[in-house]
Amino acid sequence: MSYQSSVAQDSLAAAQLEMAGNPSLALRRPFDPVAHDLEASFRLTRFADLKGRSCKVPQDVLSKLVESLQQDYSQQDDQFMHVAIPRIGIGLDCSVTPLRHGGLCLVQTTDFFYPLVDDPYMMGKIACANVLSDLYAMGVTECDNMLMLLGVSTKMTEKERDVVIPLIMRGFKDSALEAGTSVTGGQTVINPWCTIGGVATTICQPNEYIVPDNAVMGDVLVLTKPLGTQVAVNAHQWLDQPERWNRIKLVVSEEDVRKAYHRAMDSMSRLNRIAARLMHKYNAHGSTDVTGFGLLGHAQNLASHQKNEVSFVIHNLPVIAKMAAVAKACGNMFQLLQGHAPETSGGLLICLPREQAAAYCKDIEKQEGYQAWIIGIVEKGNRTARIIDKPRVIEVPAKD
Amino acid sequence: MSYQSSVAQDSLAAAQLEMAGNPSLALRRPFDPVAHDLEASFRLTRFADLKGRSCKVPQDVLSKLVESLQQDYSQQDDQFMHVAIPRIGIGLDCSVTPLRHGGLCLVQTTDFFYPLVDDPYMMGKIACANVLSDLYAMGVTECDNMLMLLGVSTKMTEKERDVVIPLIMRGFKDSALEAGTSVTGGQTVINPWCTIGGVATTICQPNEYIVPDNAVMGDVLVLTKPLGTQVAVNAHQWLDQPERWNRIKLVVSEEDVRKAYHRAMDSMSRLNRIAARLMHKYNAHGSTDVTGFGLLGHAQNLASHQKNEVSFVIHNLPVIAKMAAVAKACGNMFQLLQGHAPETSGGLLICLPREQAAAYCKDIEKQEGYQAWIIGIVEKGNRTARIIDKPRVIEVPAKD
């Protein structure tokens, strides 16, 4: 194993520069490169040409492979005949592997991507929350270990590296701590683009995870975070780019964009852990997290894995305030209202018994102070998902 | 979790193109791009500007971070007071984390790097063997799960991608199968450079791993694979580059280089699993695997972790035939005889009781058909390692 590179400077102190002595995200000031002795023009997001979904290989190409992997699994199932737990996870958010030790199984996931916000500390937090989210989507609330995967951009000066990498690592480790787990190692390499990600691993009893294949007719769909993170992140970058900004300035103010950007960072860095815990309390029938393939992409994937002949119909789209208008002003570029806009570290999309859904939403808001929304229903069908023609857009928050 | 990208073509058949119907590596033909409908000039190694150690962040920078991580651990040790097993692994090959479940612990490692051979299938096997090697270095012989991490180069044509990526994946998965484990998922992104790596995870009883801190005066050091993989890989690339080739053609023939290259691929793709199993049989006092920081770098790291006041003295350097001469002809470029030449998926460097070492070497040769060598001794000292002034170079194999 190799270990993350960094200078041993006090990254904690550095990480607190924007905290104004207050760790609450709400009061966190924007990342100020100058305060860290970097050029005012420093932008972390410039260390990669791709962001969000664009760094993913297309879903159809992936699904082809999933088939070929699935075959390998059927073979392996034979080896696991003596084990009660089937191998699952292909095409789902985590892999679940039966272990040699009494009834336990290994739930594991990995993810990494490129910088999409300019605050290195927040980028680290978001990357960690994003990796953990795959566990939470399976209803797993305890993570036993994390590894960090970092690529240090060849284009970074030594000074930039020595400021940015410790901040990213600190953010990642702070989120891990918040999740009740820790980072015991990882790998860092030099790479043209800056890459950030990790591995999350849990060893648990089968009753600790929820196989997301149990939706039934009459269930409703709950979403635990608003959409529009990618739109907000892009709009914020356009503040530096007059020609792009001119395309949206008629529908949104600079302050709207800054607020949306901070809401997006707040949302992306939020753990889906309580959402996962409540899935057990309210008997969720399955869940996935909304990330690179957008709400509809992940909804379709979840629908395709259902045991029952059901399909998902989505009526409501909660979106970070003003970002729906921005998306419209950009024509088809984001496909936000079509459900294709990539999200990073998005919310959980959960199938809940109708009579439990309202209580779930009320409970999560009580515990977290964040809203969740009933966005659709589960009806009889052929394991597909769709958004109705004129979905209702819910501005989040309703007003400032 | 995302999944490896690939077209669902029959990568197995493709992988067998060079097999001549015989899966034995010895009889494997060189990778032929044309046989896969690629340009004759296709070279996988051209999809990254860095190779071997150069993709690593310098060891001194890493060690600084290791300190800062170590602090986090001491804190966590408090949380684990009730657990008999201490958290270890920082600066070692794996992390070991106590679990919530009866006395079990999680042993985990990750590694990824850039293509260093031009045969995609072999590259996949080498990457897998390299990740697993960290487990084997801790004496762990069973791997419960693997994840694959792939970066598809933005410079690859779609055709190249569709040929190369499935071959890499097949090689990786074949090695995992050979190791008695399987790949249940991973992540694939698009990246300027092609990257290949993975995660290896084991859940085991404390008696299944060997904490590598128990060397005592009088022990001897055994190495299970020859050095010089990096030299062989570079020399082979120089066959295409007259100006580089001219620097070494006086000391080595083209056939020598091709033989060395295939020995290197054979060696790098070989699992250290039997070497790990025999560590238990012959009461090894500790071990590490020789990779990016070279023999001396890893020997020094292992020495620094010893409980007793010992140091390591290395007298013998087993080197792939003719590669010592090539290294000398290149002046200080490789620092092979100084112990600094990076290796990929190198052998285990093991501290064994003197009276057991010969039996260990005989046993591994009997089981694997590959030699291991006693290369040094453990004496009283300050936890450092050194190579004597005029080490004896052992040509491997002695003759053809």
UniProtKB/TrEMBL annotation, chains A, B:
Q: Does the keyword DNA-binding apply?
A: no
What Gene3D superfamilies does the record tag this protein with?
PurM-like C-terminal domain, PurM-like, N-terminal domain
Instruction: Report the protein name in the record.
Output: Selenide, water dikinase
Q: Which Pfam families match?
A: AIRS, AIRS_C
- Residues annotated as domain PurM-like C-terminal: 218-387
Which GO terms are recorded in the biological process aspect for this UniProt protein?
Answer: selenocysteine biosynthetic process
Task: Output the CDD domains linked to this UniProt entry.
Answer: SelD
Species name: Leptosia nina
**Residue stretches making up the PurM-like N-terminal domain:** 93-201
Transmembrane stretches in the record are none
